[in-house]
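Journal club prep — side note

Before the paper discussion, L.F. wants everyone to see what a predicted structure for a comparable chain looks like in token form. Sequence:
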Amino acid sequence: MLVRPFVQRDLARLTALTIETFRPFYEDHFRPLVGEVVFANQHGNWRDDYREQVAGLHDPDRHRYVAVAETGDTVTGYVAWSVDPARRNGTVTHLAVSAGHRRHRAGTALCEHAFDGMRALGAEVVEIGTGGDPFHAPARALYERLGCTRLPVAVYYRRL
């Protein structure tokens, strides 16, 4: 597996990978959990939201970066991160690995690549967020293996 910088021709594949990766969360976990009204309000257009978000992830002039994992000619995952130089803080904003390449250290390699990039830009701390639900359990396990500290956070939704 090779981890390399993002190039514009990666955009369509990364967008598709993001939608493929997070479809089970939105459709199988979040929607049934919160109901149709909250789902529609919060994430009813989640596919289009990702199409817009992924297109803006790599913007070095704004301290935003993307790295891509490849096995052969196949894109197997990516990580997006940003750095706030004034605060010396980095944030992993997106991490996605294709289903067939999970549990093969791609997520670890991508995160470590991002951490190295953040350090090179002066960051001293990294923030990574994920869900507390069963779908996100593998991400939590990865971040804990990487030495991250889990914070107790609760988010609530209610239909009005």
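L.F.'s comment for the group: The radius of gyration is 16 Å. Keep this in mind when we get to the figures.
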